[in-house]
Amino acid sequence: MFEKIFIENHLMDNEITKRILKNFPKVPIKKLNKIEDVWGRVKKPYLQKRESLNLFIGEKKGELVKETPDAYGIGPEKHFYFIHAYNCIYECQYCYLQGYFNTPDIVLFVNHDDIIKDMQTIVDEDNDSWFHAGEFSDSLALSHLTLEWDQYWDFFKKNKKAKLELRTKAVNLKSIIDLEPLENVYITFTLAGFKEGKLFDLKTPSVKARLSAIKKLADKGFKIGLHFDPIIYTDTTMQSYKELVDEIVKVIPAPQLGYISIGVVRFTKDVYREVEKNYGDSQMLQQNFTKSFDGKVRYSKPMRMWILNSVRDICLKAGIEEKKIYLCMEDD
Question: What is the mean pLDDT of residues 139-145?
Fold first, then answer.
């Protein structure tokens, strides 16, 4: 998977570092003072990830836990995301990472104790807080290398009023499947319609495979969340989501379905330019986009509201409770 592995000098004897390296005994290792000395210093095209990726192992510095934008999650509580990795092995056409970092190379941070310490400080101030993993990476895709989630489970078992969300498109359940299901921990999967998943979610497990992973977790008693986000409109989108929701209600018992977020595709201007460059012939770009209320590039508001309300109606007609559905990153 990786051409080279770069490691910060002081982390060579770190237990998570050793755990990761066991998986790549033949990959050359280079030591450095800090990952920023190499990572992202020279612009590396996003699609170069198809031929070569490097792995960086480092310590996250600065702000480890950040408050989310408005309309990021469900409920009135404060929402935060924590940064445990940068970049993703998948290649979704709409991914904002292609215009966010200078490189697609993967970074795995190993100072989880520091992250948990900052989370504890937040919880001590406000018990009812949400914490989200998967903002700059997939929370499970490479978790078999790091095996850090048991540390976080201990934290959320102790802090029962705080909540954790692991956002993923992976079917790699090795790091969590044997952990104890907790009422305040949600494993959440981003799903598209079956056709749309094939068109736009490149290099990811199929929607069918994700549904199979969801069933394994649900059968074990885990709480599940779903993200229908970003919805990309095609002529078959509504029929695709109806078929998807019909499968979901078969797979997830109603008490274990925590929530569904619904959002349409959106980009910053920089990301939109990268998408046009990387996937210029994508069906995703066949619709008209406009500058929206927050400066992002989106469908027009009437079109967005029609898409969002149509998918919400599909969920309601399938018997999903209205209180479990929320609109993601919308002003209304």
Answer: 97
Cα of first residue to Cα of last residue in the chain, in angstroms, is: 43
- Domains defined for the chain, CATH in brackets: 5-327 (3.80.30.30)
Q: What is the mean pLDDT of residues 27-44?
A: 96
pTM of the model: 0.95
User: Angle 112-125/149-158 helices, nearest 10 degrees?
Assistant: 20
Task: Name the residue among 137, 138, 121 with its Cα closest to residue 129.
Answer: 121
d(CA 180, CA 157): 9
Query: And the tokens for 312?
Result: 């919400």
How far are the Cα atoms of 88, 106, 236, 257 from residue 56, in angstroms, in the given order?
A: 13, 6, 41, 36
Alpha helices in the chain (DSSP H): 15-21, 112-125, 143-146, 149-158, 194-200, 207-220, 237-251, 269-278, 301-317
